[in-house]
Design a protein that fits this description.
about 220 residues, Immunoglobulin-like, four-stranded antiparallel beta sheet, about 20% helix
Length: about 220
């Protein structure tokens, strides 16, 4: 009885192994590929206001439209792009971008503060507060947001592109130059946004980010 049971187990193992060996003789390969491209094209990649003076104003602009692939006439699967415009502190060296984003001191500026000393060694004083993002809203439907100068660093404005009726947006960047703390005229109306007097003569900077949030 023991011999019969042992032979049955051995025989079962041989059968299972045989099935596995037969399966390996046939295989099917499904080739899967996808071409991934950006949906938006933004121009220009940089803007330089040059030397500015307190309470002076200057205007620049940038252009947002669909990428070449998105705008192809036979591409009808997706027609709309929702996006947002964000702003972040500008690093002096692009390699320090993440550091500048995460280490902007929250305490008021003082020249002796080690946090501010380290920050200004790697990052420009923040220009973002003073930059408007104003849409052209032409042609209709006027479906873009608006953000005037003098706003928090984390302020966001939304835009939308439709391939058929609104294929491009022209955004106006209006730099409304602040006065330095303690040096403002009596008609100054943006209290709390004055940069320290020690920033006089420094180059300010801001990184403007255009981020796609939805494609449909």
């Amino acid at each position: 009885m023991r011999k019969i049971l042992l032979l049955t187990i051995v025989g079962l193992v041989v059968v299972v192994a045989g099935i596995a060996a037969v399966s390996a003789f046939e295989a099917w390969v499904i080739n899967v590929t996808a071409r991934i491209e950006n949906a938006l094209y933004v121009h220009p990649e940089s803007q330089n206001f040059g030397t500015m003076f307190p309470q002076e104003k200057a205007i620049r602009s940038f252009f947002v439209t669909t990428s070449q692939s998105f705008s192809e006439t036979d591409q009808r699967r997706v027609l709309n792009i929702d996006y947002v415009i964000k702003q972040k502190p500008k690093p002096k060296n692009p390699a320090d971008a993440e550091w500048c984003y995460n280490n902007l001191p929250q305490d008021p500026y003082t020249p002796q503060d080690p946090g501010w000393i380290a920050y200004l060694a790697k990052c420009y004083p923040v220009l973002c507060y003073y930059l408007s993002k104003l849409p052209d809203n032409f042609p209709p439907p006027g479906n873009d947001g608006s953000l005037a100068a003098y706003h928090p660093l984390n302020a966001v404005v939304a835009g939308k592109i439709n391939k058929d009726i609104d294929p491009a947006d022209q955004w106006i960047i209006d730099l409304d130059v602040p006065c330095f703390k303690g040096e403002c005229a009596q008609d100054w109306t943006h209290q709390g946004y004055e940069p320290p007097a020690e920033y006089d003569g420094m180059t300010f900077g801001c990184d403007i980010w255009v981020e796609v949030t939805n494609i449909y």
